[in-house]
Model the fold of this input.
Amino acid sequence: MYKVVFRNSAEKDLEKVNSIYLVSVSLHIKKLSENPRPSGSVKLTGSTNTYRIRVGVYRIIYTIEDEILTVEVIKIDHRKSVYK
Done:
Protein backbone atom coordinates (compact mmCIF):
# COMPACT_ATOMS: atom_id res chain seq x y z
CA MET A 1 0.00 0.00 0.00
CA TYR A 2 1.14 3.49 -0.84
CA LYS A 3 0.94 6.36 1.60
CA VAL A 4 -0.97 9.38 0.25
CA VAL A 5 0.31 12.78 1.38
CA PHE A 6 -0.85 16.26 0.46
CA ARG A 7 1.07 19.43 -0.17
CA ASN A 8 -0.32 22.30 1.89
CA SER A 9 -1.59 23.94 -1.29
CA ALA A 10 -3.39 20.73 -2.30
CA GLU A 11 -5.20 20.62 1.04
CA LYS A 12 -6.43 24.16 0.40
CA ASP A 13 -7.42 23.17 -3.14
CA LEU A 14 -9.51 20.29 -1.76
CA GLU A 15 -11.44 22.71 0.45
CA LYS A 16 -12.36 24.73 -2.66
CA VAL A 17 -13.77 21.77 -4.64
CA ASN A 18 -17.46 22.11 -5.44
CA SER A 19 -19.55 20.01 -3.03
CA ILE A 20 -21.04 18.08 -5.96
CA TYR A 21 -17.59 16.66 -6.82
CA LEU A 22 -16.05 16.53 -3.33
CA VAL A 23 -17.02 12.92 -2.53
CA SER A 24 -15.84 11.67 -5.91
CA VAL A 25 -12.52 13.55 -5.73
CA SER A 26 -11.90 12.28 -2.20
CA LEU A 27 -12.69 8.71 -3.23
CA HIS A 28 -10.27 8.85 -6.18
CA ILE A 29 -7.52 10.19 -3.92
CA LYS A 30 -8.16 7.44 -1.38
CA LYS A 31 -7.95 4.77 -4.10
CA LEU A 32 -4.47 6.03 -5.06
CA SER A 33 -3.11 4.26 -1.98
CA GLU A 34 -4.14 0.91 -3.46
CA ASN A 35 -3.30 1.61 -7.10
CA PRO A 36 -1.31 4.78 -7.91
CA ARG A 37 -1.67 4.21 -11.65
CA PRO A 38 -5.39 3.50 -12.11
CA SER A 39 -7.16 3.18 -15.43
CA GLY A 40 -7.52 6.68 -16.86
CA SER A 41 -4.42 8.14 -15.23
CA VAL A 42 -2.11 9.93 -17.64
CA LYS A 43 1.60 10.57 -17.20
CA LEU A 44 2.32 14.26 -17.80
CA THR A 45 4.84 15.04 -20.50
CA GLY A 46 8.11 16.57 -19.43
CA SER A 47 8.23 14.82 -16.07
CA THR A 48 9.40 11.47 -14.83
CA ASN A 49 6.80 10.64 -12.18
CA THR A 50 3.92 13.15 -12.39
CA TYR A 51 0.43 11.94 -13.28
CA ARG A 52 -3.11 13.29 -13.50
CA ILE A 53 -6.57 11.85 -12.99
CA ARG A 54 -9.80 13.33 -14.37
CA VAL A 55 -12.73 13.53 -11.97
CA GLY A 56 -15.57 15.32 -13.72
CA VAL A 57 -14.39 18.87 -14.38
CA TYR A 58 -11.58 18.57 -11.83
CA ARG A 59 -8.04 17.27 -12.24
CA ILE A 60 -5.85 15.71 -9.57
CA ILE A 61 -2.12 16.17 -10.20
CA TYR A 62 0.18 13.90 -8.20
CA THR A 63 3.63 12.32 -8.11
CA ILE A 64 4.57 8.73 -7.34
CA GLU A 65 7.67 7.73 -5.38
CA ASP A 66 7.86 3.96 -5.87
CA GLU A 67 11.02 3.59 -3.78
CA ILE A 68 9.30 4.84 -0.62
CA LEU A 69 5.73 3.86 -1.58
CA THR A 70 4.39 7.41 -1.44
CA VAL A 71 1.88 9.32 -3.57
CA GLU A 72 2.03 13.11 -3.15
CA VAL A 73 -1.01 15.09 -4.24
CA ILE A 74 0.30 18.33 -5.71
CA LYS A 75 -2.76 20.13 -7.03
CA ILE A 76 -6.53 19.74 -7.31
CA ASP A 77 -8.24 22.26 -9.53
CA HIS A 78 -10.79 22.88 -12.25
CA ARG A 79 -9.73 21.69 -15.69
CA LYS A 80 -9.53 25.27 -17.03
CA SER A 81 -6.90 26.41 -14.58
CA VAL A 82 -5.08 23.35 -13.28
CA TYR A 83 -2.14 23.50 -15.70
CA LYS A 84 -1.41 27.24 -15.29
